[in-house]
Automatic annotation (TrEMBL):
Record's catalysed reaction(s): allantoate + H2O = (S)-ureidoglycolate + urea
GO biological process, one term: allantoin catabolic process
Pfam families listed in its UniProt record: Allantoicase
EC top class, as a word: hydrolase
PANTHER family found in the cross-reference section: ALLANTOICASE, INACTIVE ALLANTOICASE-RELATED
Keywords on record: Hydrolase, Purine metabolism
Xref: HAMAP family: Allantoicase (MF_00813)
Protein name: Probable allantoicase
Organism of provenance: Sphaerimonospora thailandensis
Amino acid sequence: MSPFTRLPDLALRTYGGAVVAASDESFAEREALIRPGRPEFRPHTFGPKGQVYDGWETRRRRGPGHDWAIVRLGLPGIIRGVIVDTAWFKGNYPPYASVEACAAEGHPSVDELSGWVEIVAKSPLSGDAVHEFPVADPRRFTHVRLNIFPDGGVARLRVHGEVVPDRTFLDGLTVDLAALENGARVVSCSDEFYSSPNNVIAPGLARHQAEGWETARRRGGGNDWLIVALAGPGMVAVAELDTANLIYNAPGAASLSGIDARRASLDDAGAWFPLLPRTRLQPDTRHRFRLDDVRTVTHVRLDIYPDGGLARLRLLGALTRTSDPITFD
């Protein structure tokens, strides 16, 4: 897999993405393009429109032109790579595809979208395959348009990148400084055997264990941990550690520490200071703690003891300098 696949899928439905328009969806609905999880397939399962596919499928085009679908990104940002997955489409996949993107402020209608630029050139596709396309354009985008030539079916569209929120909206407000949608990101993690650590800062509530972060069972010493680069330098007032859905594999305890990475390296153990001491956790419980430390932090380290999982981590506070965001290499 390409390195960009480790970045969040900006178009994911559970992150607020939506397929807002499509030229045609005669055989299978457009909304399937951004569903979470791998596409499923049951052979010889027929409905009124033919074989049922877990994807978007258009009718056979008899005239000129091509089919397309427009996706509003749930998390606007810089796109680093796109995946066009034709899983299970073997005799009805499009032979070519391209991807365009645009940036629009506010809540535009489809007809108001303009300024489209090509981020993936027209490229050949094969059936039942995952196609990865790196993207080099450094601009922030809010929408993408998948073009397929001339017609056919695509199971999933993934749009991986770095979240870039509208920072003026966050200025002066109490916000979740650790939220993926606000530009935070997990930059380091001890273990991600069962699920991605970025899940722990995802929008919304985790519906099941796979939508949180869970580590393997630790058989030696030590403990598991992750480090979150916050949306920007800020002061954390409230910490929320949610072990929802983790009934037999929640950590026994957890602690939080902070650092201002503008003044010290993350590798400098002495520069980290405690925000929340080691505290007992309960399974399947939303834990909330008021924090008394008023120092500015750019990164927060979560330690869990000794292992296990966490559904969500929320760090509520205020940005101290919205003009000085955290950047990633």
